[in-house]
Amino acid sequence: MYCVNCNKSFSDDYSFCDTCGGKLEKENGTEASQPVTPQPATY
């Protein structure tokens, strides 16, 4: 498992990064990670 925010590596026991709080994903996951494209804020 690794953090999608800071790329820190974790064992499968964790769900969230203990450094930045980011979501963890499996290193060989079947989900294709897609880059996050920032959207302009509308007011």
List its traits:
elongated, little secondary structure, 43 residues, two-stranded antiparallel sheet
What's the pLDDT, averaged over the residues? 79
Write the element-wise H/E pattern from the N-terminal end onward. EE
- Give the % helix: under 10%
Q: In angstroms, what separates the terminal alpha carbons?
A: 38 Å
Strand content: 5-15%
Q: Which strand order spans the largest sheet, edge to edge or round the barrel?
A: 1-2
Structural class: little secondary structure
Question: Main β-sheet: number of strands, strand sense, barrel status?
Answer: 2 strands, antiparallel
Low-confidence stretches: none
Shape: elongated
Beta-strand segment tally: 2
What would you report as the Rg, rounded to the nearest angstrom?
13 Å
The total of helices stands at 0
Can you characterise this structure?
This protein is low in regular secondary structure and 43 residues long. It has a domain at 1-28. It is 0% helix and 9% strand. The chain has strands at 2-3, 24-25. A two-stranded antiparallel sheet has the order 1-2. The radius of gyration is 13 Å and the shape is elongated. The mean pLDDT is 79.
Summarize the structure.
The chain is elongated.
Topology:
Blueprint: E1 2-3, E2 24-25
Antiparallel strand pairs: 1-2
